[in-house]
Amino acid sequence: MDSHVSDPYAPPPGQPDPYRAPSDPYAQPGSPQSVPPSYGAPGQQPYGQPAYGQQPYGQPGYAQQPPAKSKKGLIIGIVVGAVVLLLILCGIGVALIANAADDDDPIVPTTPTRGATPGNSAAAPPPGNNNAITADSSSDFGDVCQGGSILNAAEYTTPASAKAYVFANTPTRKTSWSYKSLDSRASYYAKSSDYAQVSVVGCLAYVEGSEAAGQKCDIKTSDGTKLTLDYMSSRYTLTFHNARTGEKIGDGGTVNAPANRCPSFLTYNKETLKSYASPDTASIDAALKKQLS
């Protein structure tokens, strides 16, 4: 008698095995039964999970997002637009200003004149005269004899109302002009402090080669040395000029510098021992009265 040991876990006859995988109802006879893949097997996807990059059947797909576009082009466009807008606004502003200028009379800016001594206005020098100066003393008027002019000199109107100064050079100092004394009783006379009233300058220029022997003058120097000097005569030409413009307005003729007698005071050249006589004062005054009468 065979002994049979019954399986306590076997299902009752006619009942399906709950622990056995159900058969595929759609499997064809004789086809092998599908075996579900094991989880975690290398190279296989878990059961029911779609492969990477594939959409599961019947599920909505999620497409891979494209890389973000660069905003460089947008920024450049914005900057170009701003520049164009600015140019348009500037053009409108220029147009408005131009229209306003057409409606109103143009405003001509005024240039302030240079300050002068009270009572006299400073005049601009004539064209091309770059030697014009503003005088602050009577000696500055000597520049007129060297081609200059005085910006703050009095305006020359009529000869009879003019005030004058006279300057002269010397045979040894031809570019240096010194003031000559005039008749203080004359209408043209002006004190050294009244230079702002002067409108005429007389220039006594030494005539080259006009010197001649005059007197022999004995002198004693400051250290007691005795010397004999040749006191020389010469000639000068006198011209009159508008002090403000430098323009020549008259001729005073020739003025002699006589050496008829030795003066009590004189200057001399230490090398040549020559001394030169000064232009005759009376002749200068006579020429001024004729010119400014």
Question: What features would you describe in this structure?
Answer:
The protein has 293 residues and is an alpha/beta fold. The chain has a domain at 132-209 and 234-257 and 280-291. Helix content is 15%, strand content 19%. The chain is built from two helices and nine strands. The chain has helices at residues 72-103, 281-291; strands at 132-133, 149-150, 164-168, 178-179, 200-206, 212-220, 226-242, 248-257, 274-276. The strands form two sheets. Strands 3, 4, 5, 6, 7, 8 and 9 form a seven-stranded mixed beta sheet that branches. Strands 1-2 form a two-stranded parallel ribbon. It is elongated and about 105 Å long. The N and C termini lie far apart (185 Å). The model is unreliable at 1-5, 24-63 and 92-122 (pLDDT under 50).
